[in-house]
Structure formats: structure tokens, C-alpha cells
Amino acid sequence: MKHYEVEILDAKTREKLCFLDKVEPQATIAEIKNLFTKTHPQWYPARQSLRLDPKGRSLKDEDILQSLPVGTTATFYFRDLGAQISWVTVFLTEYAGPLLIYLLFYFRVPFLYGPRYDFTASRHAVVHLACACHSFHYIKRLLETLFVHRFSHGTMPLRNIFKNCTYYWGFAAWMAYYINHPLYTPPAYGDEQVKLALAVFLFCQLGNFSIHVALRNLRPAGSKTRKIPYPTRNPFTWLFLLVSCPNYTYEVGSWIGFTIMTQCLPVALFSLVGFVQMAIWAQGKHRSYLREFRDYPPLRSPIVPFLL
């Protein structure tokens, strides 16, 4: 059996960082990363990006050496992805913050609205309902992170957590300040508007959860297998007939419901920004599905049926 020689160069400077002798043809990129770490412990595998071209795409951990377009002496280019943090930790931090921050405003802790309002309660029922819905949403997200989601990538750059938390925590504080403010004005159309909005919110929350469970069931534990998601017997998953990312569709629907319920401008802006970001993610995933699966259903749109 012939063995490979592997040299790893810095993608920026072309400096030789490592030379590996007698590497098995069946070795995966993940195994090569582990060998590289032995000579450079500061670059643990999750920090490494190995590629065939300095400006090319990162190779997948499951790629096999002998299946790559390289000779018996393979040259890989290394980029440092920076300090990494697990996706689970990121999500727990992102979602726990808004939950706690919103409750601080709901209970009107001191220094938020002035001494006369410390620990007082709003007289408007919609304020209490909004708190229950907001808390339910983020508790659901926390539980899904722990017990439902299966991540194709174990980590993300540590620097991203500061950006993400600024977005989630900042908007949560902005929304909560106005919804729980002593001068808050209830929706213009009263209880009927609130009831309609609550129905939309709960419907979309259940739909979002159903999609997450369906996506979890597509990927066996510990694998990175990708399959085309299809509707199941659960009616909430039938949205897969029309869009590639119905979890985002339902998520946006939830926040539209919350916007109608509270009739609050910061909530509307959060919904709009969230929709733009999720539309970008959905379009990326949609393109990925089309590249990977030739038989991908042609009727599907990324996030909004027939439109986007």
C-alpha cells in the first residue's frame, strides 16, 4: 500500500508549517488535522481550515485523502479560524440573555422607570400576555438547543458571540423597555387584535418546533448526513412543499404575531431585521440544496412561498 506525504503551508505566507510522512491513503482531513495539532498544539482541530488552494474553500473533515485531486505528495494550505466556541454555548448565551433582560423590565426593577414605579405591575393584560409569550419563545429555544438541535458544525468563532449577543440582548432590552413602560398604550383594536395575534404567535411557534423535530430526525446522532427534508404526517411540516426553510417562515410569523399583539415599533423593527437575516440564510441553504441534490423539488422557494 502506498503512503502519502503531506505538507501544510501557511495560506498567507506560504511558509511550511508541517510535513507529515507515511500518511494512510484512507486518512480523513479530520485525522490530518489531529496530526497537525501534535506539532502545533495552539491550533486545535476546530481552529484549522485546510484547503487545496490558498483562497479556495475549506475541505470537509470527512474528505478522504486519496479521493482528493492531489499527488502522492499532497500540499494543503492552512488558515487559522481563531478561537472557537461550541454552538450549544453560543445558543444558550444568546437565548438566556433576552429571557432574563425582558423579565427585568417586566418586574420594573429599580433604576429603569423611576422610584415610583419600582416593582409595580402594569394594569394592561396585554403586557402580561406579551411577557408570557416572549418567555415561552426563549425557553422553547433553550430547550431545543439542549434536546432537539443537532449541529453539523460543532463550533463557531468566539468573536461572533459578542456580535450575536449584542443583537439579541439589545433588541430584547429595547422592546421590553417600551412594552413594560408605565405609559405603554394597548393595541388600537383591543382584545380582538390581541387574540388574533396570540393565535398567529402560537400557531407559528408550534410550526417552528415541528420543523425542528423533523430536521432532527433527518440526521442520525453524531453524523453530518444531509438529506432532502420532506413533509411528514405532521401537518405543520407540509410547508416543506413550498419552502426550503419553513422553520424560518414560522419564526418570522411568530414575530409578526408578537408585533400585532404589542403594536410596538421596536418589535416591528426586530421582526424586519430578523426577516432580512433569515431570508439571507434561507437563500444560502436553498442554493446549497440545489447544488447537492439533483432531484431537489423545483417548486420550493427559500422562505416565502412563490416569492422569496
Tally of discrete structural domains: 2
Uncertain spans: none
User: Mean of the pLDDT scores?
Assistant: 93
Biggest sheet: strand arrangement: 2-1-4-3
Tell me the radius of gyration: 24 Å
SSE pattern: EEHEEEHHEHHHH
Q: How many helices in DSSP terms?
A: 7
Which percent range fits the helix content? Answer: 40-55%
Distance between the termini: 52 Å
Number of strands: 6
Keywords: Acetylation, Endoplasmic reticulum, Fatty acid biosynthesis, Fatty acid metabolism, Lipid biosynthesis, Lipid metabolism, Membrane, NADP, Oxidoreductase, Phosphoprotein, Transmembrane, Transmembrane helix
Transmembrane segments: 85-107, 166-184, 196-215, 235-250, 256-281
Enzyme class: oxidoreductase
Pathway: Sphingolipid metabolism; Lipid metabolism; sphingolipid metabolism; Lipid metabolism; fatty acid biosynthesis
